[in-house]
Amino acid sequence: MKNPLILILTISIFIYSCNNYENYKAPANVIIQNYGGELAYGAGVGVSNGNKYDYLSVELSKSLFLQYGILPGNVITHIATEFAKVTPHNIKEIHIELVDIPTDNGTRVFSEKISIEEAKLIISKENILHNCFDKIALNNITELTPFLTEDYKTSFIEKDGELAIKGINEMIGQYKGSMFRGYDFMGNDSILGKDFILLNGLMLGSKVNAELSIIIDPEKPDNECIVALRY
To answer: Strand, helix or coil at 113?
Structure first.
């Protein structure tokens, strides 16, 4: 006979999944529309330091995102933030697996655990990203301060400015915030002299392939952003 505890847990997970099915349809559709493949999700129970916690498990399979130059970490973060918008308060983590992902050497599996707290922090900063996107879309270079160090040799200069804007607009139009892999908080920076948020993503354009960084000064009330390109 099946262990009663396992049976109860299985039934609980099934009921939980059914009750939240409608809520999860929206984020699931967003992910499938962006990356293709097949998506499965359900609830689970984990143990940390002897304490149980609830998590959401999401699995994306048979996606071709690597063939389009999209990094696995970007996909994982996008999945986490979309599902975190509708998860109930008892969920503490989202466990994400990207499986059956075709590569030149067969298929690969990518997995990561992201806390709901981290995912919701990213969500809370979306307005800052949109503010930066709007400035870029308006081609208002004067509102974007070039960030130049030894690592960032090229930015919005006269020679490449128009081409760079076109590439960024294509990236934003196709992938929105899904091209960014989380937030890195860094302090005592030599440029800003204070904490800032650095977002790195791969800019994909028909004529431009470059790494795009958006740097946000959290102390600025108007969410001023600095954009840098590295070719």
So the answer is: strand
| Beta strand 106-115 pairing with 184-186 | unpaired
pLDDT digits (tens, 9 = 90+) for 130-170: 666 565 555 444 344 443 333 333 333 333 444 444 444 44
Question: 3-state SS string over 140-189?
Answer: CHHHCCCCCCCCCCCCCCCCCHHHHHHHHHHHHHHHHHHHECCCEEECCC
- SS3 category, 37: coil
**Which residues, at least 6 apart from 154, have a Cβ–Cβ distance to it below 8 Å?**
160, 229, 230, 231
Contact call for residues 34 and 76 (beta carbons, < 8 A): no
Q: Are 212 and 205 in contact (CB under 8 A)?
A: no
Handedness of CA 148, 152, 158, 163 (dihedral sign): negative
Name the CA dihedral angle for 80, 86, 90, 91, rounded to a multiple of 10 degrees: -20
Which helix (H) or strand (E) covers residue 93, if one does? strand 91-103
In this structure, how many other beta carbons lie within 10 angstroms of the beta carbon of residue 169?
15
What DSSP character marks residue 67?
G
Report the alpha-carbon distance of residue 145 to residue 154 in Å, rounded. Answer: 13
Residues 6 or more apart from 156 whose CB is under 8 A from it? 141, 144, 146, 164, 165, 227, 229
Structure tokens at 218: 């959290």
Residue 230 main-chain phi, psi, to 5 deg: -130, 115
**% of the chain with per-residue pLDDT over 70:** 43
